[in-house]
């Protein structure tokens, strides 16, 4: 019996919906249905009862879900214990959200290569929804993500690690680059490139600058991958809104510069390390925490 099928059943029991569970698990509904049917055949009993668009576990299904939760915790803790008794090695699977991915992932890869040569590293980038699905599906061990995108629950352990300063960036030869005073209205006359803006930041920006509309309505290109947005900013008159550290190398090379806006609103992207509460503490996850702590400390130093 595959533990993955048990994880599928647990997710289905939690959501009560094949469509929602499939989306959370990053599967098609057909694949999820086949997984549940296969599990039912192995156990010789129906586990799910369909009720229109919703579904519920049968008596047997509820029993399997209860025992499967304990079994998956034991499996995770067993593998953790074996790895932790040996030299630090094994596979570390880490997910990065948009800002942390663009700013920190390359440094993290170099850190692991230099300090933990026996660790195999798997890095995933994606939206908060994709990363949370992968975390619940146990296909990644931990994620570094914008804390504002999280829906907190008892199943998660969330640690705030630091903040990424945000702002506006343009190419050095941009028409606004030489101006001493730039307003938010000036910026919005140009194409705006950004990742997904949180409700909190959108509201603060609108109120602080006295805008008549949600700043997100002015976004020309939205992407979870910041590197292409930075590259496009360097080659056009577009304005990038996002984590300043994502453009650090381009700024240092003199190709991009930060725009200082009148009555500047200082925005920070809170970065959190997230893992499942049901998984015991791992030394490999400590590698992520220690790296991030040092990364933020280095940028706070004078």
Q: Which runs of at least 5 residues are low in confidence (pLDDT < 50)?
A: none
Architecture of the largest domain, CATH level 2?
Answer: 3-Layer(aba) Sandwich
> For this structure, what is the CATH class of the largest domain?
Alpha Beta
The CATH H-level homologous superfamily of the largest domain: Periplasmic binding protein-like II
- Could you spell the SSE succession in H and E letters? HHHEEHEHEHEEHEHEHEHEEH
Strand proportion, as a percent range, falls in 15-25%
Task: Please describe what this structure looks like.
With 302 residues, the protein is of the alpha/beta class. 45% of the residues lie in helices and 23% in strands. It contains 11 helices and 11 strands. The protein has helices spanning 3-15, 18-25, 29-43, 59-85, 98-115, 128-136, 184-187, 199-209, 226-234, 248-252, 283-300, and strands at residues 48-51, 54-57, 90-96, 119-125, 142-146, 156-171, 192-194, 219-222, 239-243, 256-259, 267-276. Strands 3, 4, 5, 6, 7, 8, 9, 10 and 11 form a 9-stranded mixed β-sheet that branches. Strands 1-2 form a two-stranded antiparallel ribbon.
Features:
Arc Repressor Mutant, subunit A; single chain; 302 residues; D-Maltodextrin-Binding Protein, domain 2; two-stranded antiparallel ribbon; elongated; alpha/beta; 11 strands; 11 helices
């Amino acid at each position: 019996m595959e533990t993955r099928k048990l994880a599928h059943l647990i997710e289905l029991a939690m959501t009560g919906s094949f469509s929602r569970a499939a989306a959370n698990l990053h599967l098609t509904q057909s694949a999820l249905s086949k997984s549940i049917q296969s599990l039912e055949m192995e156990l010789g009993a129906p586990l799910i009862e369909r009720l229109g668009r919703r579904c519920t576990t049968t008596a047997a299904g509820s029993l399997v879900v209860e025992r499967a939760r304990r079994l998956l915790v034991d499996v995770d803790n067993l593998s953790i214990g074996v790895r932790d008794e040996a030299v630090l090695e094994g596979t570390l699977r880490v997910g990065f959200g948009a800002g942390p991915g663009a700013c920190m992932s390359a440094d993290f890869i170099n850190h692991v290569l230099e300090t933990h040569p026996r660790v195999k590293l798997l890095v995933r980038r994606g939206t908060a929804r994709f990363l949370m699905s992968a975390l619940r599906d146990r296909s990644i061990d931990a994620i570094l993500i914008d804390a504002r995108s999280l829906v907190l629950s008892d199943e998660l352990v969330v640690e705030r690690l630091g903040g990424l300063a945000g702002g506006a960036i343009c190419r050095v030869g941009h028409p606004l680059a030489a101006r001493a005073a730039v307003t938010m209205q000036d910026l919005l006359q140009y194409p705006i490139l950004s990742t997904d803006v949180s409700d909190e930041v959108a509201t603060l920006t609108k109120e602080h600058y006295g805008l008549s509309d949600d700043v997100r309505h002015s976004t020309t290109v939205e992407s979870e991958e910041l590197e292409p947005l930075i590259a496009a900013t360097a080659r056009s008159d577009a304005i990038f809104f996002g984590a300043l550290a994502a453009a650090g190398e381009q700024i240092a090379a003199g190709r991009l510069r930060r725009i200082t806006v009148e009555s500047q609103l200082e925005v920070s992207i809170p970065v959190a390390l997230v893992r499942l509460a049901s998984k015991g503490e791992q030394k490999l996850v400590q590698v992520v925490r220690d790296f991030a702590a040092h990364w933020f400390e280095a940028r706070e130093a004078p």
